[in-house]
């Protein structure tokens, strides 16, 4: 089954509700808030930002808190998620949510100081085109920040061949288009003309209150069942085992995230 984010604009409200809930759970986790404060806080303050794949606006809130942008234009291909984002920011100025995606933002050339893509590139089937678009809309000397998971390392295993790890493998098949994108990104950035790459690893672990990873696992199991990879009884069993581990204090889930910050070269005099 292909990554459902590749067809996010076609997803029903029930699916968008589940995705939005997961986005909120991840953004509200204290460890994730600390991670975002570090990498977003390193971006130029008081600048004009373009956020790619804003979803329901959960990541936009973190960006506003950490980077203090003068103005944010946020794009997403999903009308349903954009509606949720607009509702979230109904009483706030300086943020504009518009249709667009990573390869076709609909924005003018050299219009932004900073482009941010928060957990977007792992869902793209054309990262080269997305990097070219980011390069186009950035001003000379502008900053590109890409934050995503090294999702091939995701784990919930407590022992060798733990059957619950199959749920993370289902996530890689059904919810993530490219679990290795952050490993390939340095070469792709260089080929796209970016320079000065700064990559930082951010370990993310949830144990006693794993709201985000538990929601990710539930969506993974549902996707696996829809794809015919398992039956309803096994799907229910995976969810029950996850809930049992959370209840008895043995749950462990870990994801390695990477922030990659690079620059569009500044104009130089001939």
UniProtKB/TrEMBL annotation:
Pfam families linked to this entry: Methyltransf_11
Enzyme class (EC, first level): transferase
Any one biological process term the GO annotation gives: methylation
Residue ranges of domain Methyltransferase type in the record: 50-146
Domain of life: Bacteria
EC number: 2.1.1.163
Keywords assigned by UniProt, alphabetized: Methyltransferase, Transferase
CDD domains in UniProt: AdoMet_MTases
Entries under InterPro entries matching the protein: Methyltransf_11, Methyltransf_Superfamily, SAM-dependent_MTases_sf
A GO molecular function held by the record: S-adenosylmethionine-dependent methyltransferase activity
Name assigned to this protein: Demethylmenaquinone methyltransferase
Taxonomic source organism: Maliponia aquimaris
